[in-house]
Amino acid sequence: MRHRFFLWGCPVFLLITSFFMPVNFNKPTGTKKWLICENSNLCVNGTTNINKFSCQIAAYDHIDTLTVSKGEKEIVLSGTISLNVKGFDCHNSMMTADLRKTLKEKQFPQLHITFLSLSELPGLNAQPAFITGMVNIEIAGISKRFEVSYQITEDAQKIIHLGGSRDINFSDFNLIPPRKLGGMIKTRDKLSVEFHLNIKTIN
Fold first, then answer.
1. In this predicted model, what pLDDT tens digit does every residue of 51-62 receive, in sequence order?
2. Per the CB 3.0–4.6 Å rule, which of 2, 60, 126, 141 could disulfide with 9?
3. Domains along the chain?
4. d(CA 185, CA 178)
């Protein structure tokens, strides 16, 4: 299954697990918590003037939690996931090294996705639900806000599967796409970020 974006792991984005039903907002705390599992993943797809490429973070290397609460006009999310730039694998050593260098891995070893809101909190079942949400994505020290499209399902084991996608540009983060062979091979500015998160409810 193709996971449609983005940045950015267990994650991105990730993350957005906050739309699980049923949600009891009558609890004193007014919040719910979800666990982003380690077997989540992120994929970045791009093109050059001669071919296509796909770079993955195949497994989120730690566990994060998100909280969700019901605001006056939207579902409020809080929580950040951090992904190691060194974890990207483009299945080609040269392309992998180029991507890590372009993302300034030595200076900024992690990229961050901070969740802000969801358009709604749908019920969960085997049939996919489609919603949107706002996130901040930080790459190479530059943070930008984006709307992300999500697809959500729940399996028989009560695991939430959250897929998301978003198109971004290297230039959004003041980055110059990689070039090789004296500029003969040029990477396009546009990237498609896709993620698949596996989530468990913890309260």
1. 999 999 987 767
2. 60
3. 31-201 (2.40.128.110)
4. 8
Give the model confidence (pLDDT) of 130-189 as tens digits: 989 999 999 999 999 999 998 988 888 888 888 889 999 999 999 999 887 566 788 999
Q: DSSP alpha helices (H): ranges in the chain?
A: 93-102
Q: How far is CA 154 from the centre of its chain?
A: 18
Count of CB atoms situated within 10 Å of the CB of 132: 14
User: Global pTM?
Assistant: 0.78
DSSP for 130-177?
EEEEEEEEEETTEEEEEEEEEEEEE-TT--EEEEEEEEEEGGGGT-PP
Q: Where are the beta strands (DSSP E) in 48-139?
A: 52-57, 64-70, 75-78, 80-84, 110-118, 129-139
Count, in order, helices (H) and strands (E) of the chain: 1, 13
Joined tokens for residue 46: 């791009």
Map residue 128 onto helix, strand or coil.
coil
